[in-house]
Amino acid sequence: MLLLDPYEVRRDFPIFARKVHGKQLIYFDNAATSQRPVQVIEAVDSFYRSLNANIGRSVHELALAATEAYEAARKVVAAFIGAKPDELVFTKNTTESINLAAYSLLASGLVRSGNEILVTRMEHHSNLLPWVRVARLAGAKLKVVEVTDDGRLDLDDFRRKLTDKVRVLAVTHVSNVTGVVNPVKELCEEARSRGALCLVDGAQSVPHMRVDVSRIKPDFLAFSGHKMLGPMGIGGLYIKRELAEKLEPPFPGGGAISLVECGVEECRAEWLQAPHKFEAGTPNVAGAVGLSAAVEYLERIGMESIEAHERRLTEKALGILQELGVTVYGPLDVKDRVGVVSFNVGKLTPHEVAQLLDSEGIAVRSGHHCALPLVKRLGTPLGTVRASFYLYNTLEELDVFEEALRKILVIAS
Ligand code: PMP
User: Fold this and answer.
1) What is the pLDDT of residue 223?
2) What pLDDT shows up at residue 188?
3) 115 in contact with ligand 1, CB cutoff 6 A
């Protein structure tokens, strides 16, 4: 495994030329969205300059070239997660991917009255609210697996709640609040052995570690392009092929059908094969092309190198926070977590701390991180300050972070 040089990586990211409050930007808000390298910006720019046409419809040269670029992007992104091209549906983001999965199961009658849907207390609202809605519409029951005091999944509670009535387990791979990594391969295996389907929310894992569906074997895997160097407005939903064949597309429309017939009183449609039946309407072609460039960029650096680099950053960040006596949420052992650290400083609110850090040029997120049930369980209803890292962050930036926190601690005392 090659050691990643973040200083070399940074040269590809034009945003780092920018100053914030007259200071060098330190971007520690990667769990919200990443920055983009020139390779991605240029891929999107070049699509609109020289390839732009709608896809899958017209037969002129430009339309065929655009269709080819879109399908080539699908191949690259699918291979990145260990999937076949026809198992990858392009969506807008993780939220849309999870809604697509949930409503497909509802539309296909695979979640019905009397069934149970299992989620966990550490889910992002995007992997909770679609299931709340679908459970209500189906007449199914939603059950929540608890977490331990340090924010890990309570595996005993998981096993207690995984009854034969559970039809779907929806679980995050990595918590966007604590950085905790869940044993999703084992969780999916146990769900499968009880006859349940398994959706993995990969929003915080796919950008940061090697995620391979042929190893984890989920039925669905959702992720967002904008958190992994890609453009905003493009994401993915992996659907296992045998399942995709059975699923009714919940959002029907143009581009998803092989036939539509209307009699006097009724119309009917026959769907295209997956993934096209799930992609009705004009998709984000430039976004897919940009995401493919992002994946090529990540692959060139190596996911193993990226994960190891983030682990070094996380270890140092946790060390700084503990030395300063700041309250840290989640496990303190770096082997169980990725590059997300959540903390609070004395009596200051998370937003106050984030504003003080911003005045030093350091961008972090503060608040509930769209995971209210978890932050309440962690005993911090106003949420936390969250620093999250990526391949272009440096150990030196953490020295600046430490200095800034020392100043903030004086204010807090
Ligand atoms: N799940 C997790 C774990 C997340 O961290 C996020 C984004 N913060 C989402 C889902 C939703 O992602 P998006 O906003 O890209 O749909």
Assistant:
1) 98
2) 98
3) no
- The encoded tokens of residue 367 equal 């608040």
CA distance from start to end of the chain: 44
Q: How far is the CA of 54 from the centre of ligand 1 (A)?
A: 28
- Atom number of ligand 1 nearest to Cα 176: 5
Q: Residue 181 in contact with residue 337, Cβ under 8 Å? A: yes
pLDDT at 308: 96
Out of 3.40.640.10, 3.30.70.260, 3.30.1490.20, 1.20.1250.20, which CATH number does the structure's domain 40-299 have?
3.40.640.10
Give the integer Cα–Cα distance in Å for 149 and 151. Answer: 5
Domain ranges of the chain: 6-32+302-412, 40-299
Which residues lie below 8 Å from residue 330, measured CB to CB, with a gap of 6+?
Answer: 150, 151, 175, 177, 178, 179, 180, 337, 341, 342
Does the active-site annotation cover 262? no
pLDDT at residue 390, rounded to an integer: 98
CA dist 205 and 58 (Å) reads 37
Measured CA to CA, the distance from residue 208 to residue 304 in angstroms comes to 9
109 C-alpha to center of ligand 1: Å? 27
State which residues of the chain have pLDDT below 70. none
Render pLDDT for 244-286 as a digit per residue (tens, 0 to 9).
999 999 999 988 989 999 999 999 999 999 999 999 999 999 9
Atom of ligand 1 nearest to the CA of 32: 8
Tokens of residue 282, six digits: 């004009």
Which one of 198, 262, 267, 370 is the catalytic residue?
Answer: 370
**Dist. CA 94 → ligand 1 center (Å):** 6
pLDDT value, residue 296? 98
Structure tokens belonging to residue 154: 């309570």
In 3-state terms, what secondary structure has residue 259?
strand
Ligand 1 touching residue 224 (CB < 6 A): yes
SS3 350: helix
User: What is the structure's pLDDT at 327?
Assistant: 95
Please report the pLDDT score of residue 241 as a whole number.
97
Residue having the nearest C-alpha atom to atom 5 of ligand 1: 176
What is the residue whose two structure tokens read 């207690």? 160
* Architecture of the CATH domain 6-32+302-412: Alpha-Beta Complex (3.90)
pLDDT for position 57: 79
Instruction: Judge if the beta carbon of residue 172 lies within 6 A of ligand 1.
Output: yes
| Selection from 235, 392, 395 nearest residue 317 by Cα | 395
Atom of ligand 1 nearest to the CA of 369: 8
Would you report the helix, strand and coil content of the chain in percent, each value rounded to 5? 45, 20, 40
